[in-house]
UniProtKB/TrEMBL annotation:
InterPro entries reported in the protein's UniProt record: Cro/C1-type_HTH, Lambda_DNA-bd_dom_sf
PROSITE patterns to which the protein is assigned, alphabetical: HTH_CROC1 (PS50943)
Name of this chain's protein: Helix-turn-helix domain-containing protein
MF term (GO), any: DNA binding
Domain named HTH cro/C1-type: residues: 13-67
Database matches in Pfam families: HTH_3
Length: 79
């Protein structure tokens, strides 16, 4: 389940970033995270800390909730 959450979070992050027309490299500079780290998170290869979610949400001018995957989709796959 942990991997599924990371994958779904990455998809939501990429979607929100693209909606705001921000490149990965620009997001990484604004957040102070490496470009490689942003790519890894968006691909769901690594989970992200809650503190970093808040930083990204502030940069993307969205709520943390906008980046969190839908729990029903996550739980349906587990069952």
């Amino acid at each position: 389940m942990k991997k599924k959450i990371a994958i779904e979070f990455g998809k939501k992050l990429a979607e929100k970033r693209k909606e705001k027309d921000i490149l990965q490299k620009d997001l990484s500079k604004q957040c102070g995270f490496s470009l490689n780290y942003i790519g890894i998170v968006e691909r769901g290869e690594k989970s992200i800390s809650l503190e970093k979610v808040y930083v990204i949400a502030a940069i993307l001018e969205c709520s943390v909730h906008d980046l969190i995957p839908d729990e029903k989709a996550i739980l349906l796959e587990v069952e």
